[in-house]
Every structure is written in structure tokens, then in C-alpha cells.
Fold each of these.
Amino acid sequence: MGKLLTLFPLITLFISLSVQGANQQLPSFSELAEASSPAVVNISSSKTVKGRSNGPRGFNDPFYDDFFKRFFGEPPSQGQREREVRSGGSGFIISRDGYLLTNNHVVNEADEIIVSLSDRREYKAELIGSDERSDLALLKIEADNLPVVKIGNSDQLKVGEWVVAIGSPFQLNFSVTAGIVSAKGRSIPNGSDSTYVPFIQTDVAINPGNSGGPLFNLEGKVVGINSQIYTRSGGYMGVSFAIPIDYAMDIVNQLKEGGSVARGWLGVSIQEVTSDFAKSLGMSVPKGALVSQVMPDSPAKKAGLQVRDVIVEFDGVEIVYSGDLPQTVGSVKPGSKIEAKIIREGKTKKIKIEVGQLPENFSAASPSQGNKSNDLGIVVRELTFEERREMKIDHGVLITEVNPEGLAAQQGIRKGDIITYLLNERIRNTRDLSSAIEKAKENSDVAMIGIVRDGVQTFRSLKLTK
């Protein structure tokens, strides 16, 4: 008993020292917040619209208004009339003569933009330029000797590193939240062109009103611009996204020079390379971007890229996931001549490409998810000359019937789909399809099949046996 009593103070001392050591390892953000807050601003914008008289449901942040509209529909109409709509967000000063950076959705189509500093000074801001694809806007206020943020290097940011956000969530001005970098180079396909942005993912608490505010590293340097969150409730759920500052400053320079942004363009539709695809393409590892469609008169077409090519490297940058390609291509200056590495029919090949400029209103078609054969449960026929001409394809067979109990139906194949490829074989007629199926079964029970649906060609793996 006496030994136990002797050990008890030692255990208590050990636990106390351990807690103190852990506390010493946790960073303090107070100095960073004090030094950086003066260069962070609150942004209020207003515009006059004709429409429903209902007020916004997204806490005065347009990003969240869109969220509520998408999931809960339009609010009940109270008639049409002219009304003022106000939006709020955050931003930060990047030059002493009054240039500021924020999100495009904070000031989009605004009639008036008011910038409020932490010392209560207010200025009317001029919109110098904006870029919807990256969700960035450059503003200017008439003032001198303003406090400015320090610009960091987002390329040097590491996963697991501490980061701090300063902004005005729910109109609570100059609030500070902290977290870590969860991932880098995230692509967020959300129906817009934000796939061109290699987002930084964090777990920093970001809420309505934080949009456009800075993300700092522990050195007090801006490494990102808080832009979006993943949410099912309309509020913070632990997944936030920021635009890398290196990417943003390139946009800023272009907006200063010409008021618009030029991005590289390849002209292909792509999809992910799955394990089954990799196997059928003769690849040992599933990586890269699978070309499912090459657009007419595009840089890709002129360079000789073909459907079923897998792009594994572009301008010296490795393409691991399909989402890596739009980000990489978009960052290349239009007119640049680069080299790409592709895998074609199991062989590695290098091709030269002159990158084009992404058209202003361009929106790539999104690939849809997706022989007479009793095994597959489908009936096919050859395309007529008129059908091929109308659909602008030179080969393929049309599926006219699908057995709901068959293998094809169970894997998403539909009536009206056009089969263009099986394995590495072009399918021109029913004989080609039957032959390709038999050949595929000799080597594997899974084959890659090319399908045209609604004018967009995609590839998928198809199980040939139950």
C-alpha cells in the first residue's frame, strides 16, 4: 500500500508534464490575427433586380442562396417588383494603393460595392475585373498607405499544416478560425467550370460571409482564398475549399493587364481510368485521363489525339487522376507548344500539342454514366448512312432492344445506346460485335466497351459473364 502511495505523486507529475508538453506544441494564433486583421476587409454589395420580393435565404452570401434554391426550390412568390438585393463577404488588401481580392460570387453583377476596414473606414470599390471560372474578383478603392497582407507560396503548403482563416461569417466581422490542410489539388466537379482550380481542402470552419477571405499559414502569409464548402445543411461540415494564392495571383495579373483571363484548351472529353479499364488497355496501374471524345477542329484533333488514348503526362506534369488534366491544361499559356505522354493500345507514345485558348463561353459536354447477343441480353442493328451522318460518327451499332434481366441492362446499357468499340476493336456491324465478344471471352470476363449516348462517347467496363 505504501508503494502505491509513493507512486501516485509521480504518476500525477508525469501526466501534468505530458499535458504541458502537448500544450506547448499547439500553436498560438493571437499574434498572427493581430498582425493580419487590419488588411482583411468586409465587403457589402447591392444590386437592383426585378423579381420576387422575397429576401435572400443564404445569410446574404450568394453561394448559400444557390444552395437553398437547389435543394428547397424557389420561395413562394409575392409578386414582381423592383427590389434591392444585398450580399456580403470578405476580402483582403494586396497593395497599399487599394487593390483587393475577393470571390466573384460576392460582387457578381453588383451596382454598388462597399469595403469596410477593421478601423471602421468605408470606401466605395470599383470592380477592375472578375473571372467566373475561378470565382475571383479584383477590386480597387481610392486610398493610400493601406495595410496589406503578405503573399505566401501555396505550392510549398503541406498536407497536415496549420492554417488560419479570417473573415466575417454571419456578418460577425473579423472572426478567426483555424484548422489544418486536409488535401491539395482537389477538383470539385459541381456543374460549373471550377474543375480548372486546384483547390486546397481544409477543415477550417468556413461559413456564410467567409467567402473571399484569406487563408493564412503560420508565418502570417496568405496561401489561399476561402471560396466553397461541402455541405448538406447549408453550414460548415468540416470540409472547406480555398483557391491557392499562386493560382489566384496569376489571375490577378491577367485581370490588371486586360480585364480578362486566358486559359489553355485541349478540346477533349475525359473520364477516369478504372482498374478494369487499365486492364483492358494493357496498363499495369489505373492512372491518367481517358479520352472519350475529341472535338472537331480542336488542338487535340490537330495533334492527333484519338479516342481511347490515355493521357498520363502533360507538359511535364504527371496526370494521376482525370481531374488533374483540366487544371494542368488551363494553367498553360495559350499558343504554347508542349509535349504530352499518352498510352495508346498498350504502348507509350509522346505527341506534340499546340495548346489553344479556352473559348469564353465554352462548356465541355459531361460524359454520361454508361451485336446481337443473347448473353448480354441486347439486340443491335447497323446504323444507316443517314444516321451516321446525323450523329457525326463513322461506325457503331445501335441497340434496339434490351432485356431487363440481361447482363447489359444490369450494367447500365440502354436502348438507343450506340456501341462503337469493344476491347480495341472498332465495331462497324453486328459481325464485328459478335467476333469481338468471342475474342474478349477467351482472355477475360471483363472488356472495355465504347458507348455513344446523347451525342457523347464514354467508355466503361462490361462484364461478359454472370
Amino acid sequence: MPSWNWSGPLVEAADAAPWDGPLAGMVRPFSTRAWLRLILAGGILYGGGAAAVGFVLLTSPEIFRHPAASTVVAVFTGLCALGLFALPLLVSPLTLRRSAPVLGVVANLLSTLIVTAGIASAGPDFGSLVAAAYIEAPLFAMYMLRRRWAVLIAVLALVGFALVLAVQDGWEAPLGRWVFLLASVGATSVLMGVIAERADRLAESEHALAVELAGMNHTLEERVDAQVREIERLGGLRRFLSPQVADAVLSGDAEAIMRPHRRRIAVFFCDLRGFTAFTNSTEPEEVVDVLDEYYGAVGGLLQTYDATVGGYAGDGIMAYFGDPVPHEDPAQAAVEMTVELRQGMGAAVENWQRRGYDLNYGVGLTFGYATLGVIGFDGRYDYTPLGGVVNLAARLCAHAGPGQVLLDHSTHAATTSQFPSEHHADLDLKGYPVLTKVYTLADLRPEARSATL
């Protein structure tokens, strides 16, 4: 059995449905909630009428001209009331609204026929009271039906009463009774027609709004579904791109960051010392274990310090600070991360040496302007920095000794006040026409100072 509330999504969907069912042109396009109220009101009138006639039949059956016929009319009316009360519990809102035109036309015709049969079976003594119900049929018709069909229901009611007055004897002043009913029906119908016209305009406005709202909701649902699918698809980029680049793409800044642009960044290069000899003499599984440990130590810190990973090449890692997410002090972040990296890599190196692996690491840090953007070919593109600051970091990393961190002059000048560094040498680096001043980052770890002493 359907269970739904009067303001839920099912009702909203029913209101947005087109008003194009059978006999829809005869009935005003009320909202689903309005039809529920009309159905309940009709059930109350049917039930009240059946109960009143049934009570009089039980207490004073002698006033009825045809008690058996009146009983049939009362029972039928009561069943109609039960049907109206049960209808909202048995069908969905959409089915209810689609069947409303047929239901409205049938209910108005039945009302006219029931009242006519009730008057005829009751006779003049009780029929005068039943005749008052004739006013209800045109009232409902004027409110529910289009004007021409409502007028037709009113005419049928007047014709039915006229036939009863003409055929059945015992009615006092039949013409006067009919004229009085005509005046009552006419006056109330005009008043109800004005109210119904306003309700009709309101119902059409509500329907138009409901259709518009349903369209907006449908469009919004499609857009949300498409965006969710896109986010899920792009979210997979995190497995292949640096988190900063993936976040920039997901945030809608992809076009801006993909265009070539210059920015001042700090570049970090790190690789392992003795790795080539190690791979030549060690099983591949052991090599993979070492790389996992190495990448775990370096990669975790890169994420902690919001570094953008530029790429991997065997045991080499390149990362940079300050793009695509701007950083207030890229050089400071790079050196601070490297200082912390020494602790983790120191423990890793000790572990490797205990296992007989002659491995260590070296780091090169530079600070300066680079051009950043997308390079590659169809099917594979990379977001990467280009320029002398990148090349110099690679050269410094290659010259760094075991556990040593080499800095260029820009990094030294920007960070030495907080992270001491000292002149290492003026190196003749490949591709550089003049000697390059190189600095080494002081190792402030207690065990390093003890070893120096």
C-alpha cells in the first residue's frame, strides 16, 4: 500500500507531470494536494449524506415513500464515500493526479444522479430536505470543472429535480420549489465560478512553477552526477600526479596552471649513492624493498611540506616548492624539509648498512626562477619546471657526497640565518662557463657533531 506525505518528492513530481490525461480538457488542472482536499471533501459529503439517510431509515422509515430504494441509495452513497477515502491510500500521487479528470467528471455526474434518486425514493416528506443537496453538485462542478461542463452539471441537476416534481405526486408548490432551487443554484454557481477562476489561474501558475522546478531539479541532478563522475575520474589523477597538480586540476584551475608561466621556486634533487653497483649485485626483490623504504621516507616528507613531485628516475627524486600552490618562502620550506629528511634517511642508511648494503644519499637544493608548464606528447604529458635552477639542482645532487646536502648561493642567502650553511667549494659544473659557488648545509644532529669531533 503506497505511503506518501502531501509535500514529499512524489507529490512534487506529480504536480510537474503534464495535465493531459483522459477528460483533462473538462477539468481544472489543480495540484495534487488540491485534489486530495477535494476527494476528502467529497467523501465527507457522500458519507454524511449516507449516514443521515440511514439514520432516518432506522428511526422513521415511514416517512420514506420507497424505503427499499432509499436504502439502496444510502448504501451506494456510503460505498462511494469509502472509495474516496481509500483512494489516496491505494494509488501513487502521479496515478491520482492522472486519474483526477475522470474521477472529477464521474463524481459530479454521480452526485447529480444520487441526489435525484434520493429525492425520488424519499418522496415529498423527506425529499424536500434531500433537495437541498442539489446545491452541492453545481458548487462542486463549478469549482472542479471548466465552465461549460459545470453549467451542464447544473442543468442536469435542475432537469432531474424538475422530472421528479413532474412525475411524482404529493409535492406542494412544485414550480415554486423549482424556481427557488434555480435561483439558489444560479447565485451560488456564479459566486463559486469567480472563486474557481481564481483557483484555476493559481493552479496553472503552480503547475508552471512545478514544471520549471522539476526541470531545474532534473538538470541539477544530471549536472551533479556528471560532476561526481568527473571528480571520481579526476580523483584517480592523484595516483599519477603530484597532489598539488591534481588538486589544481580538480579545482578548475587546470587551464591556468597548464599555460607556461614563470615563478620563483626551490628545487630539490635527491638520489642514492652506490645504487648502480647495488642493483648489479643484488636480487631485484631486495632492490624493490630498498626503493620502497627510500621513497617512503622521502615521499612522506614531500607531502607533509606540500612539495610538488616533478618526477622519479630510478633512485632519483625531483621535487619543487612554490608551484602550482604558491609558497610564502619556498627555499625555507625546502631546507627545513631536508633537515628533517636527514633524520629519517640516517636511520634508513644505518639499516641498509647493517644488511650489507653500501648505500647512502645526496641532496642538491637551488632557489630561483623557472618556467613551469606542460610538456610531452599525445597520450602522455607532464607538468614540470624548466630552467637553469632545475639543472643546477641536478648538478649539485650529483656532486654531493654521502649524506651531504649542497646548496646554491640563492638558497644559502635565503636560509642561512635559520639553517646554517657554509661555503663548500667553487665547482666547475658541466654547462656552466664560470665556477659556481656551492654551499653545504650544516648537519646539526648530535650524532653528526659527535662524529665531527
